[in-house]
Amino acid sequence: xxxxxxxxxxxxxxxxxxxxxxxxxxxxxxxxxxxxxxxxxxxxxxxxxxxxxxxxxxxxxxxxxxxxxxxxxxxxxxxxxxxxxxxxxxxxxxxxxxxxxxxxxxxxxxxxxxxxxxxxxxxxxxxxxxxxxxxxxxxxxxxxxxxxxxxxxxxxxxxxxxxxxxxxxxxxxxxxxxxxxxxxxxxxxxxxxxxxxxxxxxxxxxxxxxxxxxxxxxxxxxxxxxxxxxxxxxxxxxxxxxxxxxxxxxxxxxxxxxxxxxx
Length: 263
Ligand SMILES: Nc1ncnc2c1ncn2[C@@H]1O[C@H](COP(=O)(O)OP(=O)(O)OP(=O)(O)O)[C@@H](O)[C@H]1O
Ligand SMILES: [Mg+2]
Hints:
A hairpin with a 5-residue loop joins β8 and β9. The relative contact order is 0.16. By secondary structure, this protein is α+β, with helices and mostly antiparallel strands. Strands 7, 8, 9, 10, 11, 12 and 13 form a seven-stranded mixed sheet that branches. Helices cover 32% and strands 29% of the residues. The protein is built from eight helices and 13 strands. It has two domains: 11-28 and 111-249, ATP-grasp fold, B domain (D-amino Acid Aminotransferase, Chain A, domain 1, 2-Layer Sandwich), CATH 3.30.470.20; 31-107, no CATH class. Adenosine-5'-triphosphate binds at residues 29, 50, 52, 56-60, 62, 106-109, 111, 120, 149-151, 205, 207, 217-218, 220.
């Protein structure tokens, strides 16, 4: 019998499966395999583009590239910002950052911010005890003050999603956004499970732009429970562990890297 895949590391492969859903397609930023010409074309269209290793994780190697002024280019990797006149030089430097690894380029989303720091939301979706997909947790991840990624392992801080949303909009609108994020999360799980029926849980990184449009940045097929250990209310974590156990997953809950926000 063919072994059922439960971990899919290639981001482009996962994105292609999600794009088959017309409902999800509207929430996926343009994503292409990166090369010199494609990055130039995308920067011409969008001004800001994220490039990321096709099979990376923990925010490692994720770089934000921007076009500004008259043929000026800038990128940020970690806390280092570099600026260039002329695209050829900029790409040479980017190419050496990427160390010849396959990368993808994605339209950059200008994230909502909390106290000046951008954030996104991790939505955990698992098969429940009846085997149906259920959104079991939401955690807000605020970027380290000098970084362009929100990952906890990159110095991000975890907050309850509603704290971050309420700082940007009314509580009615926040509740509606939370419901929509859960719905999108469940839809992603169903869609990926059409290609990978062995899947039991996913973690969806959802960005919210300044117009409150939701964008799926990425779907993780081996989601990290760590953000949920940093929330003041442990009920989401309890449920995540319960469902995880039911499909034989054990989690490492020694989460040293991300911080706990003060809410
Ligand atoms: N298109 C984008 N626009 C704005 N920010 C982005 C974009 N893509 C990624 N980011 C930021 O970079 C972070 C890391 O990117 P991503 O989740 O795609 O990779 P990863 O975290 O390295 O992979 P994994 O989640 O599998 O560990 C995101 O959480 C988000 O903060
Ligand atoms: Mg991620």
